[in-house]
Amino acid sequence: MNRILVVDDDPLVCEIVADCLRQDMSAYVNAAQNGRDGALLIKGYQFDMAVIDAVLPDMDGLALAELAANQHTGVLLTSGDPETCETFDRFNLPHLRKPFDLDALVGAASVIIRDTGENIRRVRTAAAQLGVHMEELAAKQETSRRLMEQAKAGTSS
Questions:
Q1: What is the CA radius of gyration of the chain?
Q2: Which of 3, 68, 116, 157 is the most buried (most CB within 10 A)?
Q3: Residue 156's pLDDT is what?
Q4: Domain assignments of the chain as residue spans, ordered by start
Q5: How high is the pLDDT of residue 136?
Q6: Residue closest to 6 by CA, chosen among 82, 96, 83
Q7: CB of 109 within 8 A of CB of 21?
């Protein structure tokens, strides 16, 4: 029997996704409604996969996905935010756009469990690439901030 973790801050989404995976995949499912509890479960138990909302109130869903991958757990991210989904597309992260069809959920979960090793490699690679991308963005923002301050200082003298 597969063990699956569902992490979503919406209790109704947690319940519907967990019930679907229990019924359609005969899986043992744990659920968490925040990143902290999800991280504790990932560290404390072995899961075959985790369905993780990308936007959690207390933790970045991608950071939680990276933790799951590092614990040898396959990952399926979910998000209703169009920009987040575009980023996931660009970096080849396995995800479903909310609202999603429950058949699509079962199909994606089946593939992830079947190809866990490949899924974990994709998540780790994407997380590393996103980390570099974010560092580059932060450096560009800092340069822009400094240039703006210099321009302000130059116009006020």
A1: 18
A2: 68
A3: 62
A4: 3-155
A5: 64
A6: 96
A7: yes
Low-confidence ranges of the chain (pLDDT < 70): 133-139, 155-157
User: What is the pLDDT, as a whole number, of residue 129?
Assistant: 87
- Tell me the sheet residues that pair with 19: none
pLDDT value, residue 130:
83
Beta carbons within 10 angstroms of residue 106's beta carbon = 16
Q: pTM of the prediction?
A: 0.85
Residue 36 to residue 53: CA distance in whole angstroms: 13
Sign for the pseudo-dihedral over CA of 90, 96, 100, 106? positive
pLDDT at 135: 66
Angle at the Cα of 55 from the Cα atoms of 101 and 37, rounded to 5 degrees = 100
Cis peptide before 11, with omega less than 30 degrees from 0?
A: no
Fold adopted by 3-155: Rossmann fold (3.40.50)
Asked if residue 49 lies in contact with residue 74, where contact means CB atoms within 8 angstroms, the answer is yes
For residue 121, the number of C-alpha atoms closer than 13 Å in the C-beta half-sphere is 4
Q: Residue 74: how many CA atoms within 13 Å on its side-chain side?
A: 20
